[in-house]
Amino acid sequence: HAGHGAAMATPRTMRAVQYDKYGGGAEGLKHVEVPVPSPKKGEVLLKMEAASINPIDWKIQKGMLRPFLPGKFPFTPVGDLAGEVVELGSGVTNFKPGDKVISISFP
């Protein structure tokens, strides 16, 4: 496809799904525009290509894990994702821009 391999500027904003309080189920999820974060030391910035909302995500949203995960709102749920590395934080040596990766994260 056109431009494959060419360096592209990182956009300033991105789309995200967030909720701003416990409860609400699917209706509590909002599509929002948020600033693209800069990767910190040891982190990579990904262009997300696929993500899932898993049972742990709805349990967090419902407030079932409050004793372990106090709410910081707004919250962007994401457990499993696949994407492409677009930017490296300092100290990252095992990845390079363009690498396709998967991630399993826990808040």
TrEMBL record:
<protein>
    <recommendedName>
        <fullName>Alcohol dehydrogenase-like N-terminal domain-containing protein</fullName>
    </recommendedName>
</protein>
<dbReference type="InterPro" id="IPR013154">
    <property type="entry name" value="ADH-like_N"/>
</dbReference>
<dbReference type="Pfam" id="PF08240">
    <property type="entry name" value="ADH_N"/>
</dbReference>
<dbReference type="InterPro" id="IPR011032">
    <property type="entry name" value="GroES-like_sf"/>
</dbReference>
<dbReference type="InterPro" id="IPR052733">
    <property type="entry name" value="Chloroplast_QOR"/>
</dbReference>
<feature type="domain" description="Alcohol dehydrogenase-like N-terminal">
    <location>
        <begin position="41"/>
        <end position="102"/>
    </location>
</feature>
